[in-house]
Amino acid sequence: MKDISSGRMVSGGKSGAGAMPNAILMIKPYWHDGLWVFDDPAVGLVREPFIAGVPEMIDRLVAGIPDARRGFRLLFSAQPFPGCQRELVRVREEYGGHWYRTTDQPQEGWLCPALFKYFATAPERLYVRAEAIGPEAGG
Predict the structure, then answer these.
(1) Bridge partners of 89?
(2) For residues 85 and 75, what is the distance between their CA atoms, to the nearest angstrom?
């Protein structure tokens, strides 16, 4: 697993001859001007905001992380992985992005077309985990 913001290749892409794409991806969202946003210079995103239901999903996901608004690690994959906290199911397409619904509680959120910076097509399911950043989290 590599940090998306460090220049690694994304799921569905290749880095070098015969290289396999990362199965687990990572971004580091943080709170800025009243929104959850993230930066990923490797794919040209700066302060990319989460909107339309996703901020509420994030709030629930990071409820146990102290100072999450200062930044946290968000692992995500189209495949289940050990320790994933939430499963999101794709429900419909709209405005070039896709709506996803949590399987454990009735929450929906829209992921904008920036999703395609990480996946060639919108995954049917996404699996996510939020982790603290800092010495206590090993990062």
Answers:
(1) 101, 125
(2) 10
